[in-house]
Amino acid sequence: MKTTKLVISLAACFLLQVMLVTDILSQDSLRIFKYPSAKEIAVSVVAHVTELKNGKFFYEYQLQSLPNSKQNIWTFDVEYHAPVQEIQAPTEWLGDPGYLPPPRVQWYARDSLVEISPDSKLGGFSFLSGGIPSIEIYYVSGWVEPPVFTEENAPDSVIGDNVLENSVKGITIGPTAPPVNFSASTWIDTLISYKHQAVSLGWIDNQGIANSLDSKLDNAKSKLSAGDTTAAKNMLNAFVNEVEAQNGKQLTSEAYALLKFNAEYLIDRLPEKKGEKK
């Protein structure tokens, strides 16, 4: 008997289940295959960002599959909103910039032997970008066997094959292109929002530190509004110093990258003289 493999997207190569349903309009019986869940995993994603001498940022991720995972991890995607290059992957994994919206770097294991099994971790997922660190979405999928069908029972349609839906999603750090038209007031509002989101995400776990950072940002915003860019810069530098001092303590690597590099971007674009508004 001749067999035919169903051609499906690489990021959604999961086992299919068969359901027979009736089309209400045509009354024709259709074979609909539904992917089972690829979400039987518990995962932790840690991001580190380093600024290079050429002004680009090096983004690197480590995945940990927690002990209660029921599947091996075999795909990992991170959204981006700035061009990426030099995508690197762990041994026997592949990475590419993705070809379907939304834009995202995609990594996947070439062999089951290198998938991330429960209670293990793997790093080496990385890329370069000129984009500034921002809050982005990641997608992680568990592995199930790919389908094989005879020619006679090939499906008429497939549902649940979208990795954006059939995956574990979370929040991490990724690149975003700087705005074409820079506004200091808009940027500091964004920085303040990032600080609040970092607290909500658990990236800042000490309320005293959060309050101290808030105070510095509020003060810097007030000075900017008054046109005193020198005082605003001084307050923003104090903010960066505190972020650096708390990195790995009360701030995760994600909070550090998000707050430090966005604050420095603002500092570098403020005029030097008091009274000059940019």
Layout: helices, strands, pairs:
Elements: E1 3-4, E2 17-22, E3 29-34, E4 43-51, E5 57-65, E6 73-79, E7 84-88, E8 93-96, E9 104-109, E10 120-129, E11 132-142, E12 149-150, E13 157-159, E14 168-176, H1 184-200, H2 207-225, H3 229-246, H4 253-268
Parallel strand pairs: 3-13
Antiparallel strand pairs: 1-12, 2-3, 4-5, 5-10, 6-9, 6-11, 7-10, 8-9, 11-14
How would you describe what is shown here?
It contains four helices and 14 strands. By secondary structure, it is α+β, with helices and mostly antiparallel strands. It has two domains: 43-145 and 162-176, Immunoglobulin-like (Sandwich), CATH 2.60.40.740; 184-268. A five-stranded antiparallel sheet has the order 8-9-6-11-14. Helix 1 packs antiparallel against helix 4 (253-268), helix 2 runs antiparallel to helix 3 (229-246) and helix 3 (229-246) packs antiparallel against helix 4. The longest helix is centred in the last third of the chain and has 19 residues, at 207-225. The N and C termini lie far apart (74 Å).
